[in-house]
Design goal:
This protein has ten helices and seven strands. It has 282 residues and is an alpha/beta fold. It has a seven-stranded mixed β-sheet, sandwiched between helices.
Length: 282
């Protein structure tokens, strides 16, 4: 079947996105290459400063970690390799299989793989059949779900008191800015944004201010906020694209928390600590 005749799943803006139809392409385009390396480097830098225990061998004190909507599990595999207790969940069977294959290739057989939504895991915790987690990793999920504030609440409920959330999401400002550099007005400015079928552009880009408001309650302590790919994706000239990768990486890490560069990052990474139980019944 040629590329022009390939069927693509239509974009359903009233449903959460399942990547069964695009799993290999998603893994390759989003996590592969220099773009994926920058993403991991920024997250690892934040962890080293905020939660160094996660990046250290678990020894006798492993963290209970949930990779929520974990995709191919690129980050959580590193945590499992250090001896931490990792549960990996995803609604996509194809994504889950990619993660299992990656774990097998890495010689890691300690991860619990669960085909489940995050809300279903929260229900298991409420029923007492699943313990709370010390760390919840939820990367590149928020921009694909309908009820975004509810997802934040679900993630909070899955954490133990003093547990830490690592959250990345697609930045609305980065999408607008990239279109402006191409001489186009982004339809998101007019409230009419709808990605093409088969597109890997997230359905619901977020304003970082809104996400920080969701976390600005007595139940959260914001630990860090970084931009991911604050200039890499805007290199439109041949000279820019030919920049030495190591020099580029060093500069990305240097500017990831500096404004105004942070606010232009194509993705945002925030880490927050759960301070107290939710007022809702757990």
């Amino acid at each position: 079947m040629n590329q022009g005749n390939r069927r693509r799943t239509p974009v359903l803006m009233n449903e959460d996105r399942n990547f069964d139809d695009l799993a290999p392409r998603f893994a390759r385009n989003i996590y592969g290459g220099l773009k994926g390396a920058i993403r991991l480097a920024v997250i690892e830098q934040d962890f080293a400063q905020v939660l160094p225990r996660a990046n250290a061998p678990a020894n006798n004190k492993p963290l209970r970690i949930l990779d929520a909507g974990g995709g191919q599990g690129q980050f959580s595999l590193q945590l499992a390799a250090l001896g931490h207790q990792v549960t990996h969940c995803d609604i996509s069977q194809q994504m889950l299989q990619l993660a299992k294959d990656n774990a097998l290739q890495a010689g890691i057989d300690t991860i619990e793989f669960v085909q489940s939504s995050i809300a279903e895991l929260r229900a298991e915790k409420q029923a007492g059949t699943r313990p709370a987690f010390d760390l919840v990793v939820c990367h590149s999920v928020l921009e694909w779900v309908v009820e975004q504030a509810s997802l934040i609440n679900d993630l909070q409920q899955l954490l133990c008191v003093d547990g830490v959330l690592s959250l990345t999401f697609y930045n609305r400002h980065g999408l607008v800015f990239k279109n402006l550099l191409r001489g186009k007005r982004s339809s998101i400015l007019d409230g009419q944004f709808e990605p093409r079928p088969g597109s890997l552009t997230p359905h619901r880009p977020l304003d970082p201010v809104q996400v920080l408001k969701w976390l600005d309650t007595s139940q959260w302590q914001l630990l860090c906020h970084s931009g991911i790919r604050v200039f890499h994706d805007y290199l439109l000239t041949e000279d820019g694209r030919a920049m030495d990768p190591q020099a580029l990486m060093t500069l990305e890490l240097e500017l990831s928390r500096q404004e105004p560069y942070r606010s232009l990052g194509r993705y945002q990474h925030v880490m927050a600590r759960r301070l107290c139980p939710s007022a809702q019944t757990e």
